Amino acid sequence: MLPKELRAALAAETFSFDAVEPVVVQNSNDKQTIKGLFRLHDGNEVEAVLMQHYGERNTVCISSQSGCAYACAFCSTGQAGFTRHLTPTEIFDQARYFARHLAAQGRKITNVVFMGMGEPFHNYAAVMDAVRLLNDANGFGLGHRHITISTVGVVPQIDQFADEGVQVNLAISLHAATDDVRSSIMPVNHKWPIAQLMDAVGRYIEKTNRKVFFEYVMLDGVNDRPEDAEALAKLMLGSLYHVNIIPYNSTPDAKLGATGDQRIRAFSAILEAKGIACTVRIPMGRDIAAACGQLRAETQPRAHAS
Ligand code: SAH
Fold this sequence. Notes:
Elements: H1 4-11, E1 21-27, E2 33-39, E3 45-53, E4 57-61, E5 65-67, H2 76-80, E6 82-85, H3 88-103, E7 111-114, H4 124-135, E8 147-151, H5 155-162, E9 169-173, H6 179-185, H7 188-191, H8 194-208, E10 212-218, H9 226-235, E11 241-247, H10 261-273, E12 277-280, H11 294-305
Parallel strand pairs: 4-7, 7-8, 8-9, 9-10, 10-11, 11-12
Antiparallel strand pairs: 1-2, 2-3, 3-4, 5-6
The protein binds S-adenosyl-L-homocysteine.
The site of S-adenosyl-L-homocysteine has 17 residues, from strand 8 and strand 10.
């Protein structure tokens, strides 16, 4: 938790020091998505994105670490490796940057998602402090229910989060329904295989009675077959289990391809036929490399060359 005086200073309009400095800011063609690459005091860089859902919702996606230690095969950040944890202020200030941008148009941030670079549950204390800042009346006064933390599936921290007593939403990056497939794209599955992960989710639901969102990025020929949908359906144990199907933003470095729209529809139809709650996420900002770690991956070679 930050000292009271610092929080008061953060709230003051004249306060100008930022823990993150924008280096590149890109607008998508439809103006709905703005992506920022921010530099930290030590030269490390992180990304954050503002997604404006036609004036209805303004969601900011923020980073919790510079880089990531979990090395998911489909993720640019994971492929680049881990640099360091962010401080609570470095996390909060990404949102503050976009809050100022919105304030200039008389608008506000309505939702914050920890779906930028890094693994929030690998930097647990700082992320929870950043949540407190977002929630604090001197910060944004953003309700817990409007904040979502997405994890690769760090089991001990799922249990810790269950005991936290906050109404922050939990999203689990599942991405496969069998250990063979999940281990082949997410090394974390060797440490906490699906059964252990789903047990932790079960304990979380038992304690909190809150809905859990399962992210499932559609990878061509890897996890998108009808039998994958069948296996996924078996893991979803009731109305508090919600699948978010994510069309893959292919990255230049990955050998993986995106599942086409028709196959995505077929996959979600299988889940729906089995009564599983499921949403297909609408991709935003594809023209500005808005997927996790993509902007940094694009700009860094240039930065090194100059
Ligand atoms: N470490 C956290 C937050 C990561 S980013 C986690 O793993 O949940 C948020 C989501 O975006 C994760 O589900 C991640 O797997 C997904 N993601 C990463 N790269 C992607 C890409 N290129 N296309 C679509 N989704 C991607």
